[in-house]
């Protein structure tokens, strides 16, 4: 299998080096997002079951120390689910800024090339502006998709937090019935 760098060369030609950086940030963002989905589907659900079973096995469920312990356990489990959120939000915030950087550097290149050729070709200017705005478009697109994922993940975490408290309370009631 031969790895060709032609798509990367085309990407650099179409939008500049900043577009490659946006692509790398997007890859990191989506890899972290997929990792969170897999974590939630497999690891978290198993850990939740272990936590509920440990809570059921306890003899004391109603004292202040037992309720505090339950709260600590649930917060630790939810904190593990929430762990990469600051990094995901950082990557989302960086994407539009990288896009803006690509646009500014692209516009500087357009104006430099127009100044060097000393021609007022509208077509060359339009092509350069189109090439310069591509990084902003890509940065915004990656940020919007990432923001949709993070919003959904935060919604899942809030719902999971509530469900975990409910399940632990119900598990004790069911075990005493």
Automatic annotation (TrEMBL):
- Annotated membrane-spanning segments are 20-39, 87-108, 128-150
Q: Which positions carry the signal peptide feature in this UniProt record?
A: none
Q: Which superkingdom is the protein from?
A: Bacteria
User: Matching InterPro entries, A to Z?
Assistant: ExbB/TolQ_transport, MotA_ExbB_proton_chnl
Q: Major location, coarse class?
A: membrane
> Keyword annotations for this protein?
Cell membrane, Membrane, Protein transport, Transmembrane, Transmembrane helix, Transport
Q: Say yes or no: keyword Transmembrane present.
A: yes
Query: Which family does the UniProt entry place this protein in?
Result: Belongs to the exbB/tolQ family.
Know the name of this protein?
A: MotA/TolQ/ExbB proton channel family protein
């Amino acid at each position: 299998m031969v790895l060709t760098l032609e798509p990367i060369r085309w990407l650099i030609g179409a939008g500049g080096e900043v577009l490659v950086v946006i692509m790398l940030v997007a890859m990191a963002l989506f890899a972290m997002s997929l990792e969170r989905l897999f974590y939630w589907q497999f690891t978290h659900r198993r850990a939740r079951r272990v936590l509920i079973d440990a809570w059921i096995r306890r003899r004391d469920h109603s004292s202040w120390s037992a309720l505090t312990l339950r709260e600590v356990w649930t917060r630790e489990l939810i904190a593990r689910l929430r762990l990469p959120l600051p990094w995901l939000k950082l990557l989302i915030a960086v994407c539009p800024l990288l896009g803006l950087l690509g646009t500014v550097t692209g516009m500087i290149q357009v104006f430099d090339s127009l100044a060097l050729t000393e021609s007022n070709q509208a077509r060359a200017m339009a092509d350069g502006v189109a090439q310069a705005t591509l990084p902003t478009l890509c940065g915004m697109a990656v940020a919007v998709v990432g923001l949709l994922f993070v919003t959904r993940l935060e919604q899942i975490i809030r719902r999971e937090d509530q469900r975990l408290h409910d399940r632990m309370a119900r598990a004790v009631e069911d075990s005493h019935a």
